[in-house]
Design goal:
Structural class: mainly alpha
Strand content: 5-15%
Radius of gyration: 20 Å
Shape: globular
Strand order of the largest sheet: 1-2
Largest sheet: 2 strands, antiparallel
Distance between the termini: 43 Å
Number of strands: 2
Order of helices and strands: HHHHHEEHHH
Number of helices: 8
């Protein structure tokens, strides 16, 4: 008897589950790659650290906006990064009510050591994109579709029409 793949078998009905499964697989492999370096690094730190590396000091809100993720998500990464001494928070010299995040010396050293691995990640991602044949363009279309009308709004319009 062959095993069935519920998520694959249910096609678009399991879209979110399929995307989560792919994301989890990539994140798990990335975590294994970080472990091979012998350096302590959590995949969820990448976006925040990389933005600080590329742009310098930024607020949590600015990072969230650039990455297109929630403020909560960046705040959680921030707490973990601060506890590990990789970033520090400081008052914005132009507006004391605002807090800016910046890499610490330890954070800069870690980024420098991880940069070759990140370059490998980028090359492998391009290889996978070429093999998969346009997945990035398909994801772009999916994101644009959801920006035009959210999943929730689409469900609500159908649900309300049925009542």
């Amino acid at each position: 008897m062959s095993e069935t793949d519920y998520i694959r078998d249910h096609g678009s009905r399991a879209l979110g589950a399929r995307l989560r499964r792919i994301s989890e697989a990539i994140d798990l492999d990335a975590t294994r790659c970080y472990a091979l370096t012998g350096l302590k690094f959590e995949q969820r730190w990448f976006g925040t650290l990389n933005q600080l590396r590329l742009k310098g000091r930024m607020s949590v809100g600015e990072i969230a906006a650039v990455l297109g993720v929630t403020h909560v998500s960046v705040s959680q990464a921030r707490k973990s990064l601060e506890l590990n001494g990789l970033i520090a928070a400081e008052a914005d010299p132009r507006d004391g009510r605002r807090t800016l995040l910046a890499l610490t010396a330890a954070g800069e050293a870690l980024v420098d050591r991880l940069n070759p691995l990140w370059e490998s990640f980028e090359a492998v991602a391009a290889e996978i994109e070429a093999e998969a044949g346009g997945v990035i363009a398909a994801l772009e279309r999916l994101e644009n579709s959801l920006k035009r009308q959210s999943f929730q709004d689409r469900v609500r319009s159908r649900f309300d029409a049925d009542e």
